[in-house]
Amino acid sequence: MGRFLLVFRLVWSDVRRHPGQAAMLLLSLSVATGMLALGGSLGGATEALYRHTRAVTAGPDVVAVSPDNSAATARTQDALTSDPAVTAHSGPYLQYYSKLKAKGSTSHVVVTAADAEPGAVDHPLVTSGTWVRSGGVVVERGFANALGVRVGDRITVAGRSLPVIGTAVSAATTVYPFAQLTGPDGGPSDYSGLVWMTKQDTKPLAAKHLSVSSLLYLKLRDPDATQAFVSAHRGPTVYANFQSWQFMIGQDATIIEGSQPILVIGSWLLSFLAIAGVATLAAGRAAKQTRRVGLLKAVGATPGLIGAVLLTEYVTLALLADALGLTAARFTQPAVVNPTASLLTTTAGPSTGTIILTTVVALAVAILTTLGPTMRALRTETVAALSDTARQPDHRSRLTRVSAMLPVPVLLGLRLIARRPGRAFLQACSITATVITITALLIIFVQRQVSYGIDSPHLGNLKDAQSRHMIVVVAAALVVLAGVNTLTTTWTTALEARHTMAVARTLGATPGQVTAGLSAAQLLPTVPGALVGIPLGIAFVWPFSAAGTVYPPAWWLFSAALATVVITAALTALPARIAARRSVAQTLSAEIT
Amino acid sequence: MNQFQAVLQARDLLRTHGRGESLVHAVDGVDLDVPAGQMLAVMGPSGCGKSTLLHLLGGLERPSDGEVWLDGRRIDDLSERALAQLRRRSVGFVFQAFHLVEELSAAENVELPVLLAGRSLRTARRRADELLAQVGLDDRARHLPWQLSGGQRQRVAIARAMANEPLVLLADEPTGNLDTAATLDVLRLFEDLRAAGQTLVIVTHDERVAATADRLVSMRDGRLVDDTWMADRRQPVDGVHGWEG
């Protein structure tokens, strides 16, 4: 217990001394694990929502969609309902294919003639207002959200103005905009919403000779045996197409199919940035940590205790960041997995597998980035650790020779890079990750937008909008983390190089040259990193692109890369300027004491 | 400029730290004229303001009040950029802790101020070769600082300080980290520099260093309390390395 308390006190005192570094570690790892959890949660998330909706609304196992209400259809439906595998059914319900106008938008609509009292199968859950009654229309919730209509608004269905009396959710159809269960290829057709009206109110639609289909909702004895049931009812005399609940899950998932790769790839890029940031922090603190290890050794601490102190801090912060990321994912998940609101939202958080994955990633980032400096500090002899003379710098004569021929800021910048080439590489990779995402963002944003409405740009494409939202979120997170990393790296470089820069100033380097040198140390790897990011960004998008994918003009991409370099330069300027204005005399005096 | 003309001057120089009850006068009303070619030793107990005075004279710190003149030009009110350019051309620093750039070889350390002055790499190389030969380290040119002894490192630092042929060389406890043999080596170098007409201001605790100076000023509590021109007290140091300026 005493040992535990000692470790805790030492860790806590170190966190209190360096709150900014702890905050930076928390921020970068929280964002990365949150994004990873969100990406991981998308697999199967729609299924969970559909299953929940199906359970609440007594959704059908199979929907038999017949193309008309002819005698042949009636015979088919009789055969289906009399099948011993069927335990219950509702319908048939007629569906009319028409147009709807609301709030200045026009959309294809499927009008279902509903019973005032739902049957044994499919009890749509009224989420606002009431269920169908004469003279009113109930709008499927996802469709209502897209149209922007609420209870009390008036909409025009097939030329008839009606008030919206309710909104509802059902598992007997796929999510908006896939309400038309039978499309040109036999599957759901894009860009239709669903409304319910009383059978009485739909009679005028029949008189208009609109396209019509007849739906029968079936409950099977074995809900998982839908495929066998459908196979048993194939044939030239069967006048129906079948949509199983499993098929609807697959169809519903397509609304977020673009989000998962964006979030998963984004989370890996963010994880890399987190690694780069934490590694820079850990390396920047290595000298202080080594002295701290020397002090602990001098007062009799064992290597095991010292290792525990050094690793516990980062591991604890990583676990805290993981918890924060998972919590953030838990609260943002509903909006991501159910963008249409056509399904009922569950309160289920990230799965156990996702929690394990994010925890492993967070711990790996913490341990991998701190293990090296910790082991080096532990191996250093006590006296050497106390005097911080353990590390002998590398001599990079070729780079030094080349830099000698360049202007002073570049000379200083290159020599700073020579001190920490690994850090320059991480900086380049961070910028590459950022430009990859920006390139993907530009590519996604130049694609042609197909509205769900008819000449109604306000009725946006939810699927594309979802992908756009995700890439914007990922890009914003990457830009913020890359910015934080740039600030951290510049400041760490400035701290580590304070002695060298102070010496350079005694030898005649101006503060401006030192500032430019510190900035150059970040910018020199930034330029190739940004340039490499463009083709890599195109390569990342390529596997997900379809025929006809539009690419932004080259000058857009190069402008984005240039903007990244300029922003990096601006971010480096402040810490570099502060570092360059530090008193030379004080810095050199501090080196003696 | 004859030998009685001051190349470096301080007028009523004041440097304070802190405020209120914690106000400390690190340098308090110092007047000092250093003639060209003079080797001036500044002595005094620890914390008396010797190093601060040296920093003020070299433009590494700004005075709270008073004036500093170098070669007839007032420098205490110059911008940081102008001060840097002034140090580049006119001031060389030698420190107790050597302050060599650890990842650069001895030659590269000496080349650095020449490159910072905007001269070519070839010029910098030639100058480094000359200076390292003069301090007796031409065979150590490619060694990194940690591969050199303390005395060798200080000789590299002196060579570096002389790289741009400064008007004054300011040395802060240059023998503070050295053993006797290395101290003598450094003293011989200073003697050679003095003989070549170099102006030197050396802050030291070491009586052996002070004994080789033309003039000795003593400080206490930030003030000059004694100023003795000691030409007759100067003790010879056996010259080993000839200095060609």
From TrEMBL, chain A:
Main location: membrane
Domain (MacB-like periplasmic core) ranges: 25-231
Pfam family, one: FtsX
Family that this chain belongs to: Belongs to the ABC-4 integral membrane protein family.
PANTHER family linked to this entry: ABC TRANSPORTER PERMEASE YTRF, MEMBRANE COMPONENT OF TRANSPORTER-RELATED
Keywords of the record: Cell membrane, Membrane, Transmembrane, Transmembrane helix
Signal peptide: none
Naturally occurring in which organism (per UniProt): Streptomyces fuscichromogenes
Transmembrane segment boundaries: 262-283, 295-321, 355-378, 424-446, 467-487, 554-574
GO cellular component term, pick one: plasma membrane
InterPro entries reported in the protein's UniProt record: ABC3_permease_C, MacB_PCD, Macrolide_Exporter_MacB
Start and end residues of each ABC3 transporter permease C-terminal domain: 265-381, 473-582
Location in the cell: Cell membrane
GO molecular-function terms, A-Z: transmembrane transporter activity
Membrane topology listed for this record: Multi-pass membrane protein
Protein name in the entry: ABC transporter permease
TrEMBL record, chain B:
Annotated InterPro entries: AAA+_ATPase (IPR003593), ABC_transporter-like_ATP-bd (IPR003439), ABC_transporter-like_CS (IPR017871), ABC_transpr_LolD-like (IPR015854), MacB-like_ATP-bd (IPR017911), P-loop_NTPase (IPR027417)
Keyword ATP-binding attributed: yes
Domain ABC transporter residues, every copy: 8-244
Cellular component, GO, one term: membrane protein complex
Superkingdom, natural source: Bacteria
Presence of keyword Transmembrane: no
Pfam family, one: ABC_tran
Entry keyword set: ATP-binding, Nucleotide-binding, Transport
GO molecular function, one term: ATP hydrolysis activity
Matching CDD domains: ABC_MJ0796_LolCDE_FtsE
Stated name of the protein: ABC transporter ATP-binding protein
UniProt organism field: Streptomyces fuscichromogenes
Taxon lineage: Bacteria, Bacillati, Actinomycetota, Actinomycetes, Kitasatosporales
